[in-house]
Design goal:
Layout: E1 4-9, H1 13-24, E2 29-34, H2 42-46, H3 53-56, H4 59-66, E3 71-74, H5 85-91, E4 94-97, E5 103-104, E6 117-119, H6 120-127, E7 146-150, H7 154-164, H8 167-170, H9 177-184, E8 190-194, H10 206-213, E9 218-221, H11 234-248, E10 256-261, E11 264-272, E12 275-287, E13 290-301, E14 304-307, E15 311-312, E16 330-331, E17 334-336, E18 342-348, H12 351-354, H13 362-379, H14 388-397, H15 405-421, H16 432-443
Parallel strand pairs: 1-2, 1-4, 2-3, 4-18, 6-14, 7-8, 7-14, 8-10, 9-10
Antiparallel strand pairs: 5-15, 11-12, 12-13, 16-17, 17-18
Helix pairs in contact: 1-13, 10-11, 15-16
Length: 451
């Protein structure tokens, strides 16, 4: 009997963990992993801070899954454009959508349309070498001396750390040269982290906060009077200890300063000549466990504002989508149609399933939960999915030339080669044209596939 054929849309952690659970299961399953990008690994490649190589090391485990028998990588295929979700459902026994959440949430305050205002999602993608943002540096001139970062999570802290860190420290990362050059010539001197709640509620991790203590020429400014004596929550208690250390440290030669503004929320972005010049902040306080406004307003000078208040998913093709919840409606991973019934052969995993929450490891259990439903449904019927040749034919007829896993390995090798030439482990290729050229060069080699 032929194997069951499953398509997994998205090659980030959720998609790869889904693939792993499928090929390790009781059924004979082959998996085609689709990605809109020519490169796999999603936010692990493009969302993890470049100066955090330890977190990026999870790629080693993800890579082993993509190299398993019965798994194909089909990159540079845009599901919903190059092939529809309905067509995938006809070609495969099941389709699991693990497309993540790629859009930054808005602040919903006046002035967000001003020049100099951006999402952390876009800024991180730019310095992370995402090909959609190869030209985005034009939007990030880094000429403002004062930058406000709105948010109290690790992504906001990543953005702030990259903005205050020295070019010499960042030069060891895999950032593309044009990004490093822009950061080396940055005029930023003050970075302001604006947090709606107090320090005991911040979602930073203590490990990330401690990294600030290692920055010898970066001062940190926060009001120690706002630090509670302690917390019953061990994570909050660890953060408070680091905050106390940051508040008391002395920096002999200050190059840049990171300011923490707790109990503050933006109510308006103020501009002049179409560009942002300040953030209007309102003081907040806690009342009955909720954050309430005090009416006390001040203006914080800022020529650049980065909002980091969460992610939001976007619809995939004709797949049902709940705009309010920012995810696909489902029951234990089975996609639900408008009538509330499960759509045959359609499933979700990761952020498309549960919304933008959890850490990388959360996706493993999430994927296992979805795959349990996929396996149960497949076991009730014989395989009927088309073979890989038919899938390739459909794509070829539309002029779609997927980047194979071998093509990705060529990109991987080229990035490592570029890195060695600069004394680094890797230098990312940041543009679509070069990524496709390097991948295609492997596909066109006469000896490709030879022993």
């Amino acid at each position: 009997m032929n194997p069951y054929r499953v398509a997994v849309v998205g090659s980030g952690p959720a998609g790869v963990y889904t693939t792993d659970a499928l090929v390790r299961g009781a059924l004979d399953v082959s998996v085609d992993v689709y990605d809109r990008l020519p490169t796999p690994y999603g936010l692990v490649r493009y969302g993890v801070a470049p100066d955090h190589p330890r977190i990026k090391s999870i790629v080693v485990a993800l890579r082993k899954v993509l190299e398993r028998d019965g798994v194909r990588f089909l990159g540079d295929v845009h599901v919903g454009r190059d092939v529809t979700t309905r067509e995938l459902a006809e070609l495969y026994d099941a389709v699991v959508f693990a497309t993540g959440a790629s859009v930054g949430r808005r602040l919903a305050v006046p002035g967000e349309e001003l020049a100099g205002v951006c999402s952390a999602t876009d800024f991180v993608a730019w310095y992370g070498g995402h090909p959609d943002h190869a030209r985005a540096g034009e939007s990030f001139p880094l000429e403002a001396e004062s930058v406000a970062v709105i948010g109290a999570g690790n992504v906001a802290l990543d953005v702030a750390r990259v903005l205050v860190k020295s070019a010499a420290d960042l030069a060891r990362t895999d950032m593309p040269p044009h990004v490093l050059d822009r950061l080396a010539h940055s005029r930023v001197r003050d970075v302001h982290l604006v947090c709606r709640r107090g320090p005991e509620h911040a979602k930073f991790t203590a490990k990330e906060l401690r990294e600030l203590l290692e920055l010898q020429d970066v001062a940190t400014e926060l009001d120690a009077r706002l630090l509670p004596a302690g917390s019953q929550d061990p994570l909050a208690a660890a953060n408070l200890k680091v905050f106390a250390d940051l508040a008391s440290r002395e920096v002999p030669a200050v190059r840049r300063t990171l300011h923490f503004h707790f109990w503050s929320r933006p109510v308006e972005l103020v501009g002049e000549g179409g560009a942002v010049t300040a953030v209007r902040l309102e003081r907040t306080r806690e009342a009955g466990g909720a954050v309430v406004a005090t009416g006390e307003v001040t203006d914080l000078t800022a020529g650049m504002v980065v909002r980091s208040v969460g992610y939001h998913s976007t619809p995939v093709g004709a797949l049902p989508f709940d705009e309010d919840l920012g995810r696909v409606p489902h029951d234990a991973g089975r996609v639900l149609g408008p009538d509330g019934r499960a759509l045959d052969g359609h499933y979700v995993a990761g952020w498309a399933k549960r919304g933008p929450s959890g850490v990388v490891g959360t996706n493993r259990a999430c994927a296992a939960d979805t795959v349990a439903g996929v396996v149960a449904d497949l076991a009730a019927r014989p395989p009927r999915g088309a073979g890989p040749d038919e899938v390739d034919r459909v794509l070829a007829e539309r002029g779609v030339r997927p980047v194979t896993y071998d093509g990705w390995l060529s990109i991987d090798a080229e990035e490592e080669s570029r890195g060695r030439n600069l004394g680094r482990a890797r230098t990312k290729i940041p543009d679509w044209e070069t990524l496709r050229h390097v991948a295609a060069a492997d596909a066109d080699r006469p000896d490709r596939g030879a022993a």
